[in-house]
Design brief:
43% helix, 5-stranded mixed beta sheet, alpha/beta, 2 domains, binds zinc ion, binds 5'-O-[(R)-(carboxyoxy)(hydroxy)phosphoryl]adenosine, Nucleotidyltransferase, domain 5
Length: 334
């Protein structure tokens, strides 16, 4: 089954061609990062306009790189939520027009299902499995007993981890997007004398607003006193505390749930320190991590999830498909 997938939920315009839920034949990502950088973050209206400008050429490029003609496609898939509604609607309307013109069935896929299924490109899922989803909008521990069956074990009570990375980076003057920049700075030192509060929550939940405020207060206090704080030491401490919470809660979940695999998903999965630390923490249970190209937002992951969604739900969605800015994974796949 060959699927053309589109993803436009935030600031990446992407199209991909994916075969049988395993093989990503092409995955074209046009990042708007540079357009938004001068504003210090994503401007929704600007993002929608940029998607309109590039979506058609990105689709053409994905088909041409995969050497696939539209007639050879079995379905079209598109992210239906969550995300910026204006951005989502550009992808959804492009997918509808394409599906209508070429008489193909249309599937609306949840963005986080996409992040999780990015791992299918690495190795087949073996159930039950535990998935740690870490992105700009999500921090969740999810149990899966079968394809497209998601049970929430824990989630952030305030900020998502990627959001905390981005905000701390902005206050430190590292610019946008902050996550990768803060990560690079943190890795330039191995220890620091600074201390950070340790967040320990009941169950499997997470919290990042206290840590974020602590870093901001530390910087403000130093500024008032005319002191300087080493940027690399601060980044290092923040990263150890932020990732440490993920490690602790994942370990706790593994102590109470017998699983065959642990999956890492979402933009923060690109973090090298998290990849190695988590691998050690979950051993001997195998950790699966997506390749870097499938970690941050891309359409390849949507095409991978679409295949399993179609096996479970069939090809029922059509031109009535709509966008949902706040849809949860658990409401979408009940
Ligand atoms: O999944 P994603 O592309 O978009 C959302 O669905 O949110 O994730 C983007 C997030 C941003 O917050 C970005 O700063 C973060 O992932 N990120 C990182 C790294 N690379 C991306 N955070 C920490 N370390 C990284 N290397
Ligand atoms: Zn994402």
């Amino acid at each position: 089954m060959i699927i053309l997938a589109l993803e436009t939920s935030c600031d990446e315009t992407s199209a991909a061609v994916v075969k049988d839920g395993r093989e990503v034949l092409s995955n074209v990502v046009y990042s708007q990062m540079h357009t938004h950088a001068r504003f210090g973050g994503v401007v929704p209206e600007v993002a929608s306009r940029e998607h309109v400008k590039s979506i058609l050429s990105v689709i053409d490029e994905a088909l041409s790189q995969a050497h696939i003609d539209a007639s050879a496609l079995d379905a079209v898939a598109v992210t239906e939520g969550p995300g910026l509604i204006g951005s989502l609607l550009v992808g959804i309307n492009a997918a509808k027009a394409f599906a209508f013109a070429h008489q193909k069935p249309l599937l609306g896929v949840h963005h986080i299902a996409g992040h999780i299924y990015a791992n299918q490109a690495v190795t087949p899922m073996v159930f039950p499995l535990l998935c740690l989803v870490v992105s700009g909008g999500h921090t969740e521990l999810i149990l899966m007993e079968d394809h497209m069956r998601f049970t929430l074990l824990g989630q952030t009570q305030d900020d998502a981890i990627g959001e905390a990375y981005d905000k701390v980076a902005r206050v430190m003057g590292l610019g946008y997007p902050g996550g990768p920049k803060l990560d690079a700075l943190a890795q330039s030192v191995t220890q620091s004398h600074l201390t950070m509060p340790k967040t320990q929550l009941e169950g499997y939940d997470f919290s990042y607003s206290g840590l974020k405020s602590h870093v901001i207060n530390t910087l403000n206090t130093a500024k008032m006193k005319g002191e300087t704080i080493a940027q690399d030491a601060l980044a290092h401490r923040f990263q150890e505390a932020a990732l440490g919470q993920l490690i602790d809660q994942t370990r706790k979940a593994l102590a109470n749930h017998e699983v065959k695999q642990v999956l890492l998903a979402g933009g923060v999965a690109a973090n090298q320190r998290l990849r190695t630390w988590l691998k050690d923490a979950v051993a001997p249970i195998p950790l699966v991590v997506p390749p870097l190209s499938l970690c941050t937002d891309n359409a390849g992951m949507i095409g991978l999830a679409a295949y399993y969604q179609h096996q479970r739900e069939g090809l029922k969605e059509g031109l009535a498909l709509n966008g949902y800015s706040r849809q949860t994974l658990f409401d979408r796949y009940r």
